[in-house]
Amino acid sequence: MANVSSLNTAAAGFDAVSAEVAGPRGRKPRKILSRRNIILYGLLGLAALYYLLPLYVMVVTSMKGMPEIRLGNIFSPPVEITFEPWVKAWATACTGLNCDGLSRGFWNSVRILLPSVVVSIAVASVSGYALANWRFKGADLFFSILIVGAFIPYQVMIYPIVILLRELGVYGTLTGLVIVHTIFGMPILTLLFRNYFTSLPEELFKAARIDGAGFWQIYFRIMLPMALPIFVVAMILQVTGIWNDFLFGVVFTRPDSYPMTVQLNNIVNSVQGVKEYNVNMAATLLTGAVPLIVYFISGRLFVRGIAAGAVKG
Fold this sequence. Notes:
CATH architecture of the domain at 106-259 and 287-309: Orthogonal Bundle
CATH superfamily of the domain at 106-259 and 287-309: MetI-like
Strand content: under 5%
Distance between the termini: 64 Å
CATH topology of the domain at 106-259 and 287-309: MetI-like fold
Number of helices: 14
Radius of gyration: 29 Å
Shape: flat
Order of helices and strands: HHHHHHHHHHHHHH
Number of strands: 0
CATH class of the domain at 106-259 and 287-309: Mainly Alpha
């Protein structure tokens, strides 16, 4: 036994010496400043600069006074920072007949956004869950209609929707616009939820059915807790689409219920008085702040949800 132990020890020592002589094994680490990395990060830096430069111009212009803007150097930082353009854009800028800034349009957009997002996501999630896990008669036809509806141009549907909302008595109101956004958001959201629920392990659904769980029990106790990423995707898509919408806002509402984007258009394209570029830039930044904040808060879950929903079709 002692001889065997001595032989094992000698063999281990020989292997260690051989490994040391042979040098390190495995893949050679890449250089940080390799040609590939320089080209890759250089192109990414140029792309980032291309998209960030207009934002930089907007921010610095919104913090300048008009005398400084008239000097013509749009890239220079403000000599004297002022937030008066932001205050005017929010509270006193004229948006047609009213001169109360974007504040009224902001709250109109909030009243449009919240019910549209909640209702459309709730209905689409249940519809996608039913299409993915519960096969019912006419499911394929229903899904085909949703796919077609997701790609119909909005402009084709404007006049029929105007007639429909007028007959319902909600044309020109925020309620009518909420209905429009909810309906037009459901096809693509249903497709996203259906693809996501299809990508989940089917064994979970079958095990729940064997245990006697019904439609709503499986949805709330199994599917819903696992669907946070796709809910974030749906929320970001709806928030971005509804908040940035101009066409539906100007067609289906009246001046006293215009959303923020329509009021921004009225401020920027006003032909009365002096063109205040600093106020225009501040109004644009205020209008785009909400979807940007939502995306920055939940951007990682957005990528996860998109990737998970693309596994199966």
